[in-house]
């Protein structure tokens, strides 16, 4: 019986990408969209604050990305941790309920989106029968550095006190809850070092978690992850984990993506997911994004075709990207694949 589960997990994402037409579109920046809708995220909980104060805004952002063409929406649990909620005075039971709520809001958004689609305006029609666009809900797991709320996920240097066992213990209960929340998969995001990747892989195995997962790493040089660990080593850890159905890069400047995809493809045949940031740089001291000379929104989409040719098959955006970015990505890929199929 377990073998069957492993086989399903192994082909899960490849099958989904094929069902979507050869590529899948991931949503975009979350916190900045919440702020655009009026949320104040100056808080250690960051976007997870809205799970308490304004869940309707989370649902609205999910819907904006679905309207833009996303096939995968990622829950607002990136910075939602039991430890973080407890530090704000919530009980453990309340913290666990808020984690589940993050997935429920994404599911609600998907159902609202589907309900809005009239029968004569489904995304595509096969054999005279209406078919809904495939949409998955991914439960987000941010790194230990994200919980610290000091920019540590952009350095990956946790210090000697943070061991493999400490990381597993930190993430364990949150991963258990999200794995049983009804999410279609778990997205381990902005992974800054190989130690945390190893912690995730061991945790999935130890807890017998059999829903699909992806690991995405972050880089600031196009060669290594932000800690300085080799992207090849990190991607290899993800590739060796049977629950992992895709490996990729997020919250990384677009100009580094092509080389990183090429590196991942050297050590993994699993689908590659990429969702870069806008090319700006986060200043952990001022807690602001600083515009840089890198690729930003206007040029972002022009790189998608090159990323696809390098081997990526799932495309979205991270910090500072918008529904307009995702709409443009969806349009560019749709045009490319429609040409190739004619």
UniProtKB/TrEMBL annotation:
A Pfam family of this chain: S-methyl_trans
Record-linked Gene3D superfamilies: Homocysteine-binding-like domain
Residues covered by the Hcy-binding domain: 12-333
Domain of life: Eukaryota
Any one Gene Ontology BP term: methylation
NCBIfam families: PRK09485.1
Name of the protein: Homocysteine S-methyltransferase 3
Annotated organism of origin: Morus notabilis
């Amino acid at each position: 019986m377990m073998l069957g589960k492993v086989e399903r997990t192994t082909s899960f994402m490849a099958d989904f990408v094929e069902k979507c037409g050869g590529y899948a579109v991931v949503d975009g920046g979350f916190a900045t969209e919440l702020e655009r809708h009026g949320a104040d995220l100056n808080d250690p909980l960051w976007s997870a604050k809205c799970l308490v104060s304004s869940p309707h805004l989370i649902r609205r952002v999910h819907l904006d990305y679905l309207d833009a063409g996303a096939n995968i929406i990622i829950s607002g649990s990136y910075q939602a941790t039991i430890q973080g909620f407890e530090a704000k005075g919530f009980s453990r039971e309340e913290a666990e309920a808020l984690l589940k709520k993050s997935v429920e809001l994404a599911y609600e958004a998907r159902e609202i989106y589907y309900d809005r689609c009239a029968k004569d305006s489904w995304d595509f029609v096969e054999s005279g029968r209406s078919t809904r666009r495939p949409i998955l809900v991914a439960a987000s797991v941010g790194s230990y550095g994200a919980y610290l709320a000091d920019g540590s996920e952009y350095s990956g240097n946790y210090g000697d006190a943070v061991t493999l066992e400490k990381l597993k213990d930190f993430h364990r209960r949150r991963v258990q809850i999200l794995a049983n929340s009804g999410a279609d998969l778990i997205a381990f995001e902005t992974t800054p070092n190989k130690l945390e990747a190893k912690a995730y892989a061991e945790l999935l195995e130890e807890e017998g978690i059999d829903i699909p997962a992806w690991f995405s790493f972050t880089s600031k040089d196009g060669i290594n992850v932000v800690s300085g660990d080799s992207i090849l080593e990190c991607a290899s850890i993800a590739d060796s984990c049977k629950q992992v159905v895709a490996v990729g890069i997020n919250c990384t400047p677009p100009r580094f993506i092509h080389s990183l995809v090429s590196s991942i493809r050297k050590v993994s045949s699993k689908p590659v997911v990429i969702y870069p940031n806008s090319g700006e740089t986060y200043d952990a001291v001022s807690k602001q994004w600083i515009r840089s000379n890198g690729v930003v929104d206007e040029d972002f989409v022009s790189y998608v075709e090159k990323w696809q040719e390098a081997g990526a098959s799932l495309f979205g955006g991270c910090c500072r990207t918008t529904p307009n970015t995702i709409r443009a990505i969806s349009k560019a890929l749709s045009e490319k694949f429609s040409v190739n199929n004619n």
